[in-house]
Structures are given as structure tokens and as C-alpha cells.
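Might I ask for a little of your time on a matter of protein folding? The record follows directly beneath this note:
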Amino acid sequence: MEFRQLGRTGERISTIGMGTWRMGVYASLAERAKQVQALRRGIELGCNMIDTAEMYADGRSEEVVAEAVKDIRKDVFIASKVSPSNLRHDDVIAACTRSLKRL
């Protein structure tokens, strides 16, 4: 796995990230567990960047990510995006607060 430094932060981020667009959409707990397992496997293989968004599955994608990283959070970089409907200053702050609670 290749890594690049994130600006001046010192963070080393894998050049390949895992997207979670369809995660959080599941018909059973077994299917959700497979989504968590897929993220965990990617992390085991060296991918340390996960991309998600508040609008993916109405926030459930962030909940799946949270479950996948719950005991290894310090090893993973998570990027979550704000919905276009929440782009005013106060809405961005509220959306980020909700995302952080889910994550």
C-alpha cells in the first residue's frame, strides 16, 4: 500500500481509500456484519482512509464505519461529507455534530 502525507499534518494516508456509498443499506444484521467485515478487511490490508457522508443511507453508513473502527479508531482516517442542503454555517456545524455522534 502506498501512503502520502496529508499536508503538514504529519498524517500518513493510504493512496487508496474505501468508499461507503452503499454501506448502511442492508436487509439483515448479517448483511450489516458483512459490510463491517469488508471495512475491517480493507484496514487489515493497509487501507487507512475511509470516505463516508451524512447522506449515505441517511447516516447509517457512518454507523457502519463506527462499528468497523471501534477498537482501532486511532489507526484510521475518516473523511465524511456534509449534505448540500446543510451548507450554511450553522447547518454545517450541526451536521458535523450529528456525524461525530454517529461515528
Summary: The chain has a mean pLDDT of 97. DSSP finds three helices and five strands in the chain. Residues 29-44 form the longest helix (16 residues).
